[in-house]
Amino acid sequence: MEPVKIGLLGLGTVGGGTVTVLTRNAGEIARRAGRDIHIAHAAARAYDPERINGLGDIGRITEDAFAVVDDPEIDIVIELIGGYSPAKELVLQAIANGKHVVTANKALIAMHGNEIFAAAQEKGVTVAFEAAVAGGIPIIKALREGLAANHIEWIAGIINGTGNFILTEMRDKGRDFADVLAEAQQLGYAEADPTFDVEGIDAAHKLTILGSLAFGIPLQFDKTFTEGISKIEAQDVAFAAELGYRIKHLGITRRTDAGIEMRVHPTLIPHRRLIANVDGVMNAVLVKGDAVGPTLYYGAGAGALPTASAVVADVVDVVRALTSDPNNRVPHLAFQPGELADTPVLPIDEVETAYYLRLTALDRPGVMAAIAGILGEEGISIEAIKQKEPAEGETHVPLIMLTHRVKEARMNSALARIEALDSVHGDIVKIRMEGLEG
Q1: CA quadruple 26, 27, 30, 36: dihedral sign
Q2: Selected residue with higher pLDDT from 46 and 322
Q3: How far is CA 269 from CA 245, 263, 411, in A?
Q4: Is pLDDT at 48 greater than 80 in this prediction?
Q5: Residue ranges of the domains in the chain?
Q6: In 3D, which of 184, 292, 164, 148 has the Cα closest to residue 228?
Q7: 205-224 burial by CB neighbour count: b if 16+ within 10 A, else e?
Q8: Can you say whether the dihedral through the CA atoms of 421, 423, 427, 433 is positive or negative?
Q9: Interatomic CA distance for residues 187 and 185, integer angstroms
Q10: Fold (topology level) of 4-136+304-338
Q11: What integer best gives the mean pLDDT of the chain?
């Protein structure tokens, strides 16, 4: 049987890793796929021939990516350019040409996936995107296939390694955010412009995909609430530890009676939870299904070979299904295309969660009573209070509170009233809390 011919767009870190994996494991991959797989045509805007030649076997290399997607010999296009454009145009052109597509581009899928999948459905081709979420962890396949019998209740994931590295260093060494971020950039974990990582945009792209797969709703990145970690202070990390919690930057999606929660933000979780002990640049996704219960998926969320592992696994899946009826393939978003629901995505004000609060209050009688009174009037119950000793000569003290679950709108109303008190100094730090029971 003729080898399956691959067109590869991008020969950077992941592209190079993909060439290495396909070449190094060619025999094993062919045994699994049933056919040899060969990179026949690749595109790279600028590349080092010496480096590329050392990676493995590539047929032709060009600087014109559209020449690859228009090559009539190519069966599957792997898009590893990243970003929105020209990735979108290339993928849609490949689909129009009747080619299957494999991509690691979470931003593209989160923003334009609905259009791309509709085009693929019309042409009877597959768009595979396992590598778009959590690198080498096969979470897409788990949600689409392994957990297909379940009513998914919620997902909570550490899905950005840069943010997890920063929070781990802050906790273990008491360092400040800016200091650790600078080290992360030196180590190559964070980009020169780290906004996508530390402000949660990268994680929100991935959570958008997970939420769609879990609950059968269209991709809706614009409705995913996003909050980063740049305002997290070392003292909050330390206070959380004293109270038995760890701060993780989580993507959380949950089905409720009112709608679907889609939110990315720093979160206090009990230190005994397995996911609370996922440190450094590693990723983990916790999925709660009604039949299976909680399941945890852990591994490398980035890197050349881990991400290439997911890319090549998608290629193998596509090769296996090349001759199958398009109507009998695994649906792109887990649910049959005509079965996607219009369940609303809740605005953050309607989300209910518990809270960690830190405020600086005047150290005198009656202040705590006034704060507790406002919380009570807003229907907010206090679970725990911790008051720190004032520093020498200081008249204000840090006050830490943990609350029971309440809607965000109620909490914001209470905090606005508390911040208006003469006895309270500065802004109140608010970090959401999740028990992740299961």
Answers
A1: positive
A2: 322
A3: 5, 15, 19
A4: no
A5: 4-136+304-338, 139-299, 352-433
A6: 164
A7: bbbbbbbbbbbbbebbbebb
A8: negative
A9: 5
A10: Rossmann fold (3.40.50)
A11: 95
Q: Please check whether the domain covering 352-433 is classified as CATH 3.30.70.260.
A: yes
pLDDT-derived band at 438, boundaries 50, 70, 90 = low
**And the tokens for 215?**
């609950």
Give the whole-angstrom CA distance, residue 102 versus residue 313.
10
Q: Which DSSP letter does residue 345 get?
A: B
- Residue pLDDT, tens place only, 203-241: 999 999 999 999 999 999 999 999 999 999 999 999 999
Cis peptide before 337 (omega within 30 of 0): no
pLDDT for 388 beyond 90: no
Q: What residues are labeled active site?
A: 206
pLDDT tens digits, 162-213? 999 999 999 999 999 999 999 999 999 998 999 999 999 999 999 999 999 9
Tally of residues, the chain: 438
Tokens 């730090």 sit on residue: 429
Distance from C-alpha of 211 to C-alpha of 163, rounded to nearest angstrom: 21
Give the helix/strand (H/E) hosting 101: strand 100-103
Q: Rounded mean pLDDT of 409-424?
A: 97
- 428 confidence band (pLDDT: 50, 70, 90): very high
- The 3-state DSSP class for residue 290 equals coil
Query: Helix %, strand %, coil % for the chain, to 5?
Result: 40, 25, 35
User: Counting Cβ atoms within 10 Å, is residue 395 exposed (0-12), middle (13-18) or buried (19+)?
Assistant: exposed
**Topology of the domain comprising 139-299:** Dihydrodipicolinate Reductase; domain 2 (3.30.360)
Structure tokens of 28? 């094993």
For residues 214 and 216, what is the distance between their CA atoms, to the nearest angstrom?
Answer: 6
Helix axes 177-186, 161-173, angle to 10 degrees: 130
How many Cα neighbours within 13 Å face the side chain of 368?
13
Query: What six digits make up the tokens of 365?
Result: 């009688």
pTM for the full predicted model: 0.95
Distance between CA atoms of residues 382 and 388, nearest Å: 17
Task: Please list, in sequence order, all residues whose beta carbon lies within 8 angstroms of the beta carbon of residue 266, skipping any fewer than 6 positions away.
Answer: 167, 227, 228, 229, 232, 247, 248, 249, 250, 431, 432
H-only helix segments in 124-269 = 139-141, 161-173, 177-186, 195-198, 201-215, 234-242
